[in-house]
Every structure is written in structure tokens, then in C-alpha cells.
Amino acid sequence: MPRKKADPKPVILKKRKDDPGAVPAPPPLSAAWLNRRRSSASSRGPSLTVTFTGWDDEGAATGMADGKLVHAAGGAPGGAAIVRIEHESPHSGERWGSIAGWKSKPKGLVDPPCAVYGFCGGCALQHLDRETQISFKTAAVQQAFAGYESLAEVPVEVCRPSPRDYRYRNTARYVCTVDEQGNLYLGQYAKGTHDVVPTAECHIHPWILNEAARKFADWARAELENDPGFGVALRRIRHFVVRLGYQNELMVVVVSLPGEIRQLRFLYRHLSSIEGAVISGIVHNIQPDPSTDVIFGPDNHLLGGRDSLDVRMNGLTFHVSAMSFLQGNYMQAEWAYKEISDRAAVKPGTCWVDLYCGVGGISLSAARAGAVVQGYEVNPHAVRDAIASASLNRLLNARFETMDAAAAFEDIRAKRLKPRVVSVNPPRKGCGALVLDGIHQLAPEQVFYMSCNPESLARDLDLLVQLGYGVQWVQPFDMLPQTRHVEVIAHLRRKPS
User: Fold this and answer.
1) N or C: which end of the chain has fewer CB within 10 A?
2) 452 included as an active-site residue
3) What are the sequence ranges of the domains in the chain?
4) Which of 114, 123, 159, 452 is catalytic?
């Protein structure tokens, strides 16, 4: 997409000659930059009148104009708008643009509460009311299924809304950047760039996480005033991550490039001043690769407290450490784990295998219902957490192994397990043929598939149907309101031979 020279360009991270240990941080976007972007968007390319009839997978509205498909963020089907074209694909001829004005507004359009909506790469659907977002997410799953003959007639339930549309997210991950004056900014990447949009007040975070970010910035300013030389170390900090646990317990991770940052020892004092918060611990994580998109590096240093916190869901206590993944919306995760356990309706002693088990959300819910559960997870931090959580909840019928899902089947055979239920919760890429064939060989009566990607889910369900399973129930649910993402649970049963 073309840029004006006045706009900051994405930064290629390279070592500075004057400081081999530091890497220049991306520039923060000022209010003036945002205003320039708003005004310049209306002066680019030709204008077209587009009637929107659908969505793309990024949450932009789509419609045809001059025989070409046009994508426009901020729109919705049923509306017609003047779209200023900003980019045209030289290959497909598809066009992308911004809405310069409405001919007729669609139903469900609302004013986004966030000042940086449209610039921050996060909440693509904030311009839509709850009902329209739910329609979008239901349609995304239906559209994915429609591409497979075996799934075309499978009914998809209406997406389950989140109990909260805002202030629901339990983990905040901020990008840290320092301007030329040494001021620290926390924010998110602008869409499609490595420019940083300051987000001091993010509407999907509970107030206590935003307050933690402000206190972190206060700490940086105070240390810089005490020691101007601190600016060199400050530029090594890449991310500030804070997770909310039980009874306002906070776990903090500061991610930096290699090198000592001795001023971090004073951070606890600043964070502990947050009213009502309990700081469980502060971890300094070292990410040695400045060019990677992966937030965390391999090395952790505990600066104080403990490197974990407790999370309560469905009457269970989950031990969660800094490097473990946990769903971003506790309320929806709690519902999903219970729903899977309830629908399985297992008898005490039923063998259950949980692949991609993470910290044990599905596993421990099934174990409490009486199943004998064997979980497999490739992340060793998550496995240690799952084992600790099983002990905390006195669930001796749940065991866990650190193992890739594809390699787990050999261990299952060695243990002579005969699971009647198999559950999977893979990453966005899905399970793939090798894992699905392994499940087929186990021949469980029931399979539960929890997915964050309708496309890979549909692909994998199609294969499971070919392997002799019938899809009983498909329930999308809104794990991350205001974003384009949708989570789905599918329940399958083995067909009679």
C-alpha cells in the first residue's frame, strides 16, 4: 500500500553502531500522525461507490465495483459507501480502500469507543454492534463449512456471545518503544506495519491491566530522571506483558534483548501501588532475536515473587506460569470446558485422551467429572502447570506428558490406553492428517474438537467424516469480542460399522 513520505516507515531492526546491545525501537505514532493518516486516506486513489454484500476473513466489508472486488474496513453488508481506493492487487485486481462517506448506512453500525480504532491492528469489528458481530462470526464458520460437500448440510449454531463485550481480556501484551527524547510508549502495532500506536486506554482490557501499563511507564520515567544513562537499557525492552488471575492477582513479564537492566529491581514498588492489585511476581524474559515476531525468548529470570498465578474456573484452580498459554477470556473458556465435559457425559473411570492439552483446561474438567485423563502437550511449561493444577485440585485421575500430538500415539499404545473420548485444541494450523489418522486408529466413540480457525477446522472435520465420524454439533463462540476471531467447538461420534 503506498505511503506518503511524511508517514513513519516500518523499522527494519538492526544493531546500532553506537550501542551493539541495543536495537532501535519502532517509532510511536503521535496524534498528529493519526490525523495525517485520516486526512491522507481521503485523498488517495479513485473513489468508487460500493454496495457491500459480504465480508472478507479480516473483517472488512466486500462488494463489487467496476467488475472488481473491493474490500473496505469499517463497512458492513447492506450498506453502500464511497470508497477511496488505496491499493490494487497487480495479480487478482482486487482493491482495498477506506470509507470516505456513506450513501446508505447498514444496520448494526455504531461509533467505536476507541480513539485509535482503524489504526491499531486489534479490534477490526468495533464499528459493529453485538448482533452484527455475532452474525459475522456465525457466517465465517458457515462459509468455511460450505467449501466441503461432507459438511455443507451440517447445522451451525448461532455464535454464543461473550458475557462482556469489553473489559474481558485477561492478558495484555504491549509493544514497548522509546522516542528520541527517551519517552517510553506502550501500545500495539499499527495494522500491517511495525509502527506503534500508543494504547494507554485499551477498552478490551480490564482497568487494572491498563493501570499496570501506566505504572510501568511511570517507572521508566522515574528511573530515567534518576539516571539519564538508563535510556540505553530502556531501549532493550521490547514487550510488557501482564496477566490477571484470581482476586486481582497480577503476573508481570518484561521482555527485553540481552543485557542487564538493573533498574527492574525497583519495578515492584511502582506496580504494588495499584489499588486493589496483588503482584504475584515479576519475570524478566530474554528474547535474543530482535527480528522475530515471537514475543518470548527461552530464558527467564525471576525478579521477585513467583513466576505463576492462580486462575479459578468452574470451581477448579489452575496454576499458570509466565510461558504458558491460557485462553484470553476466562468467562468463555470456563463455559467451553464445562460444555465439553457435560456433553461427553462420561461414566466414572472412562478413558479420555486430551491432545494439545495446554495447562489442562479440558483435561481437568473431564477428570473432575470422573474420567481417567491422559493429556499431551508440547510446551513443557504448560505441562508442569497442568501437573501442578491436578495436584492442587486433588485430581489423581489426570496425568500429563510433554509430547507433540503426532508423537503421542506411540505413548498411548505403550500405556495400552483405550480412550472412549479424544479431545483436541490445536493451534490455528489445525491437527493435520497424521494426527487425525492416529485418532482414527484409536477408534474413540466421541471426539471433541476446539478450534480458533474455522478454515482448518472444516478441513480436519471433512477428513474425520471420511474416516467414519459424524458431526453431531457445531457451536461457535465469541472468545474475543470486537476482533474478527471466532472460536468453535465441534462434537463428533463414531458411526456404527
Assistant:
1) C
2) yes
3) 31-118, 145-162+327-494, 171-313
4) 452
